[in-house]
Amino acid sequence: QGSENDVVLLSLTRHNPAHTVGFMKLAGRRCVALSRARLALYIVGSKTSYGATDWRPLIDDLQKKGLLGDTLPLRNEKGVERRVKSASELYRICDREVCRGLGCWDD
Questions:
Q1: Residue 15: pLDDT band by 50, 70, 90 thresholds?
Q2: DSSP 77-100
Q3: pLDDT tens for each residue of 34-93
Q4: Which residues contact 88 (CB under 8 A, 6 or more apart)?
């Protein structure tokens, strides 16, 4: 079920040739996943797969409000912001567990 947190990163990255989404197509799972963030919710996933499901109204609403994007904004403790577009890019700039600080933004 999960507990509430200030910021939640919801990973819906399942992407396959059949565009099936598994148990996240269930309304109860959707409700739980979307109700755990107090301040910010970031959803990472395939618009192709989830756009053909009951997630479509949410995707359309986010797009209409300009809240749908293809990058994840990150800010280190010094206030330097960077946007990442892929997991490999994230791993390249950060340690596996915790960002190293200002130096992690240096390429």
A1: low
A2: TT--EEEE-SHHHHHHHS-SSS--
A3: 899 999 888 887 777 777 778 889 889 999 999 888 888 888 777 878 888 877 787 777
A4: none
On the question of pLDDT at 105 being above 70, the answer is no
Alpha-carbon distance values, 48 to 16, 21, 83, 88, 102 (Å): 10, 10, 22, 21, 35
Long-range contacts of range 99-106, CB-CB < 8 Å, 24 or more positions apart? 99/74, 101/76, 101/77, 102/76, 102/77, 102/78, 104/76, 105/76, 105/80
What is the rounded CA–CA span in Å between residue 62 and residue 44? 13
3-class DSSP state for residue 74? strand
